[in-house]
Specification:
The structure holds two protein chains of two kinds. Helix content of chain A is 74%, strand content 2%. Chain A is mainly α. Chain A has a domain at 100-144. In chain A, strands 1-2 form a two-stranded antiparallel sheet. The radius of gyration of chain A is 23 Å and the shape is globular. Chain B is mainly alpha-helical. The termini of chain B are far apart. Classes of the chains: A mainly alpha, B mainly alpha.
């Protein structure tokens, strides 16, 4: 078995299939368009936006583009929901995506491991008894992830929540008269505030969190290509998603032993 | 020839006859005597000034037709017998006939400037009305004809006499809606210099007697804009104006002075996307708001709203201050007749938002947090604070988390090569 490993380092696995990548591409384009056409409302005093929208007409077109991008994003959400509900792979991904207690432990574990304070203290003999009893808090190893790690799960669910908030508030901002038929003005005011600040949160989170994890992180720098070709190698699988790697390995072993019988 | 012109000529004739009768002492010079020299087209003074007087032309003017002779106006020559006579002459004796005008002029800013003598310019009747070829003001060719008057005043006021408010200040009139109406449309009733500043009795704007002083400006503009004056006086600004409150805006505070443009003109101070700045001059002023107890941060809160933001980008179809508050007859929201009173708000919003319901009045439009009196109306402000806190917290945690990750990876790389 050692001579011919069950998973070779060069073996290619499909991490994102075409449907998933298309969803991601549409999401990127609509998200960027929405940000570009929405931020000017928030930062109306910034010169860049004033140059971008030099006239009342361009401002009007901005509104139209924003709504078109919103419709595209909503269609993408619907496509994603259908894909998740109706395909085997979609359902499997969804199950993998469900948050677990282990994700919290992984997050704390990664931070503790990166800081290395516990290891430092333990080396100095401080709190040695506690660490012996609770080795988790020593953060000796980098946490091991499955198909989706806590970073990705956090992003996915944050995006899901954010999209819901944005679509809900945005729908009523688009239809002011309708909104004010149901809600008093002070509630409509909340929609406006929520839409603006949720957008800022999403924008900053994507810039900071997502850009680090798929671009700047030394693990993938300058960019993880999964979003383009959907591919991940056996080696990457082993290093970045060891639990998924183990799972595949286990499945292959089973098949092998079944064949052997 | 219409009746007024006939009457005027008759008047001139009578007064000329009277003056001849009264001042009959030594035999006065006849026009022929004067023309002996001044009929020479090449006659020049020592300084080169042309001294020719076109007598035929003079005969055609209202004064000539009325029978005035040279010495009726050049009164200091009546008794002169030595020729050539001394010069310069005294100004023509217009006051002998035009008594009221000359008396008014004597109290004007022009006479005051003459008396001061610092400008190097001395101004008299002839500077506006001309000399021998004087025409009545309703003559198309008169320098004081309504359409010609601006150019006449601007001979001095465009450059020679600088305004305290800058060089372009007076010339701004030539860009104004008033001038356009005057020059392009030929509407002589459109305001020219004289309509607002007066004619012979022009006073400094600081003089309470000036037509354009704060005390009189409403009345002056109201001479033509009667309906607007009425509306203004019914609104909060007008009510305080009548009380004599000095800080209250008058016509010129919002519309500017000479360069008054149509509100549809993109350069107008009250153009849809610019009017907010004008209102904010007072309504964002801390001192004024304290003194008169009105809300501040009007411009900032408006700018932050969709209406204000869109307007900042040049969108004219969104609500500006005037769309909701009205303009000349702006009323307090507590006034049941106000366009923004609770009862009227749905109708006001309904101008742009068809079918606007009573819900439009259940909240505050462009309020600052400290101005909210009904707690639930301020919920959005609270939500905003919470969001700012959450965003700061989440992003801070992310940055710390990422920094730790990044540093650990760099360290590990160094360790393992």
């Amino acid at each position: 078995m050692d001579s011919a490993p069950l998973i070779r380092d060069e073996e290619v696995f499909l991490r994102m299939n075409l449907a998933e990548r298309v969803q991601h591409w549409v999401l990127i384009s609509s998200f960027l368009l929405l940000i570009l056409t929405g931020l000017p409302l928030f930062f109306y005093g910034v010169r860049f936006f004033q140059l971008l929208l030099p006239s009342g007409q361009s401002f009007y077109v901005r509104g139209i583009v924003h709504r078109i991008a919103a419709v595209v994003m909503i269609a993408n959400v619907i496509a994603h929901l259908l894909y998740t509900a109706l395909t085997r792979r979609g359902r499997d991904n969804f199950k993998e995506m469900l948050p677990r207690w282990q994700d919290v432990k992984d997050a704390v574990g990664l931070f503790g491991y990166n800081i290395g304070l516990s290891r430092f203290l333990n080396k100095r003999g401080i709190g040695a008894r506690f660490f012996k009893k609770h080795p988790y808090w020593l953060f000796e190893r980098h946490p091991l992830y499955g198909r989706y790690n806590f970073v990705e799960k956090f992003e996915y669910w944050a995006l899901g929540w954010g999209t819901f908030v944005m679509i809900f508030s945005g729908f009523f901002m688009w239809n002011v008269e309708l909104s004010l038929r149901f809600f008093p003005l002070w509630v409509h005011d909340i929609f406006i505030i929520v839409h603006g600040y949720e957008a800022i949160l999403a924008f900053l989170a994507v810039i900071v969190w997502h850009m680090y994890n798929v671009h700047l992180s030394p693990e993938v720098f300058p960019m993880s290509k999964v979003w383009l070709n959907g591919k991940i190698t056996g080696k990457e699988l082993r290093l970045l998603h060891p639990l998924e790697y183990e799972k595949i390995l286990e499945e292959r072993r089973k098949i092998l032993s079944a064949e052997a019988l | 020839m219409n009746r007024t012109t006939t009457g005027r000529i008759l008047l001139v004739f009578l007064s000329a006859a009277l003056s001849v009768f009264l001042g009959a002492a030594p035999a006065a010079q006849s026009d022929e005597d004067c023309q002996a020299c001044h009929g020479d087209k090449d006659l020049k003074s020592e300084t080169g000034k042309l001294l020719f007087v076109d007598h035929a032309e003079f005969q055609g003017t209202i004064h000539g037709q009325g029978g005035l002779s040279c010495v009726d106006c050049h009164a200091d020559l009546r008794t002169v017998t030595d020729f050539p006579h001394d010069s310069p002459l005294k100004p023509a004796a217009c006051g002998d006939c035009h008594e009221a005008a000359v008396q008014q002029f004597a109290r004007s800013i022009h006479q005051a400037a003459n008396d001061r003598g610092t400008s190097g310019i001395s101004i008299g009747c002839k500077d506006c009305h001309g000399t021998h070829a004087i025409k009545p003001s309703d003559d198309f060719d008169s320098p004081t004809f309504a359409i010609n008057l601006p150019a006449t005043c601007e001979k001095c006021h465009l450059e020679k006499v600088p305004s305290k408010k800058g060089t372009g200040f007076i010339g701004g009139y030539n860009l104004s809606a008033h001038f356009k109406a005057l020059e392009k449309a030929g509407l002589t009733m459109s305001a020219n210099c004289g309509h607002c500043h007066g004619a012979h009795d022009i006073k400094s704007v600081g003089d309470p007697l000036s037509f354009v002083s704060r005390k009189n400006i409403i009345k002056t503009c109201g001479t033509c804009h009667v309906g607007i004056q009425r509306g203004y006086l019914e609104g909060v600004h007008g009510i305080d104006y009548v009380k004599g409150i000095k800080d209250v805006p008058v016509c010129t505070d919002c519309h500017s002075e000479h360069n008054i443009l149509s509100p549809e003109d993109i350069d107008s101070t009250v153009y849809a996307t610019r009017v907010a700045q004008v209102c904010a001059n007072c309504h964002d002023d801390m001192a004024l708001s304290r003194q008169y107890g009105f809300l501040t941060s009007r411009l900032r809160t408006y700018n932050e709203s969709f209406h204000g933001t869109a307007a900042r980008f040049g969108e004219t179809r969104v609500a500006n201050c005037a769309s909701c508050h009205g303009f000349h007859d702006i009323r307090a929201s507590s006034d049941p007749k106000s366009s923004i009173s609770k009862a009227n708000l749905p109708a006001t919003c309904g101008q742009c938002h068809p079918g606007a319901s009573r819900h439009f009045a259940e909240g505050l439009i462009h309020s600052a947090p400290e101005q909210v009196q009904t707690a639930k109306y301020g919920t959005a402000h609270v939500v905003k604070e919470v969001y700012i806190f959450i965003i700061a917290a989440i992003i801070a945690v992310m940055v710390v988390f990422i920094a730790a990750d990044f540093l650990r990876r760099i360290l590990r790389k160094e360790k393992h090569g």
